[in-house]
Amino acid sequence: MTAETSQTLDRGLRVLKLLADTDHGLTVTELSHKLGVNRTVVYRLLATLEQHALVRRDLGGRARVGLGVLGLGRQVHPLVREAAMPALRSLAEDIGATAHLTLVDGAEALAVAVVEPTWTDYHVAYRAGFRHPLERGAAGKAILSARQQAQPQPHPVGDAVEGPGYTLTHGELEAGACGAAAPLLGVTGVEGSVGVVMLADVVPERVGTRVMEAAREVAEALR
Q1: Given pLDDT bands bounded at 50, 70 and 90, which one contains residue 153?
Q2: How far is CA 147 from CA 100, 143, 160, 193, 221, in A?
Q3: What pLDDT is recorded for position 180?
Q4: Are 163 and 157 in contact (CB under 8 A)?
Q5: Which among 51, 58, 138, 198 could bridge 97 via Cys, Cβ 3.0 to 4.6 Å?
């Protein structure tokens, strides 16, 4: 800690991070041990966070992340979208296909930014706000593939074709449309993918590599 920082705020943020990393919540005693402070301090931190709906406590006294964080989370999408737009524009123009940034929203994939190419005679219409299950489409399956790499599974995700770092699908969200997507890697607090969707029987080989490059550019912009 330095003279310019707040110890209380730091502790409060650490509480939120600790609670976000567990599915079953934490007791005051557990938080006290993890933070290295006494229980009275933890009680005060939790009471303050509860007032802002950032923390809730169940009947057993275990603290969990509160619904108030959802309101904060909604403001993340515009910032992420703004950071991703340069890489998406470059990808769309280079490939001649609709490029998109997709983030996880519960059990669904949510397109938060979409860029269509300016020079093609036709392309797939794809709109920001479009949702689909994570198990369908290249964007969602690329995200699930990244999860599997973090925690190895015995089988690949669905029928997707996986290249070295990207995922290809055909006709899963729209008849005749192919998708290619690569996951965002190394971005704390953001789980998503960058991809393109095009009308084609086969995705050209260079598309997978180009999508991976765009995903890396977006990840760097978000760090």
Answers
A1: low
A2: 20, 6, 15, 12, 21
A3: 97
A4: no
A5: 198
Residue type, 46: L
Distance set, CA 10 to CA 13, 103, 120, 212 (Å): 5, 28, 51, 36
Tokens of 37: 């402070």
pLDDT at position 44 over 80: yes
- HSE of 16 in the Cβ direction (CA atoms, 13 Å)? 19
